[in-house]
Amino acid sequence: LQNCDLAQQSIVHIVQSPQKNSQNKDETEDNLAGGILKALEREPESLTRVDLSTSILPSLSAGLAVILDTTKNSISLPSEKSGAASYNSFYVFCKNFCQAVKPGKLRVRCSVCKQGTLTLARGPSCWDDVLIPNRIRGVCQSQRCNGNIAEFYFKCGAHPTTDSETSVALNLVTTNSRCITCITCTDIRSPVLVFQCVHRHVICLDCFHLYCVTMLNDRQFIHDPELGYSLPCVAGCPDSLIKELHHFRILGEEQYNRYQRYGAEECVLQMGGVLCPTPGCGAGLLPEPGVRKIVCEPVNGIGCG
């Protein structure tokens, strides 16, 4: 196991591959054999060492490995075995236990039986491979399972987790491996959040928290019909709205609840509704067309009557 590069708090499952007599299974394995053999020709890399930050950090750098590109020479990330500083490839928001941004662990399972017994035809090389379903195939080694689609998920790497416990990946948060200064405070911090604008502006998490709270207090969040209640790059760059709204979990529980409430209110207003003016109420009301008077009636614990 010493060559598996397992992160702390990892659970190891030993799977004995059964004899496959099914013709369909054999055909699937034959089709995938080429990709699997190519992956085995070089030193195996675990999912804990996959680095997807090249798609979000600004510019290019030889210091970031393209782990799964079989057509080019890969550069290994720092590892504890070599005495180098640890490199966290992924970050998640651990809602249940830590209630904070923590290093994450990428895991994969069969989309059919939900067991971690799937042999991948290839590893993920970009965030779309991980976040968009049905992009990567494989062969499930569980008996009586013909699953061939990989399902990726994330777990918090800061504490032991059960098999069913997962965390949301923060794909814009990454290790600041290139020592880029924060656009707001100009300090070099890590991890950082990288806005997906043309310039890939980088902001430290403390400044991002302050930015979000300030915009929330001024109700300057933008309601996008497709994305929801979001913020653009702190520099005001066009086409830079944050798409994964779980990044606003960085606000903390109290401020995040306020963010959700403001987002719901903005949605009501965008739909042509109104908010109850009674102090302490603020329920969203959607009047019928042509109605000039509306009563805030108590329904399901909402409304002042």
UniProtKB/TrEMBL annotation:
What are the GO BP annotations of this UniProt entry? protein ubiquitination
Report if keyword Kinase is assigned: no
**Gene Ontology terms, MF aspect:** ubiquitin-protein transferase activity; zinc ion binding
An example Gene Ontology CC term for this record: cytosol
Q: Where in the numbering of this chain does the RING-type domain appear? A: 178-305
Q: Which UniProt key words apply to this protein? A: Metal-binding, Repeat, Transferase, Ubl conjugation pathway, Zinc, Zinc-finger
The protein, known as: E3 ubiquitin-protein ligase parkin
Specify the species: Aptenodytes forsteri (Emperor penguin)
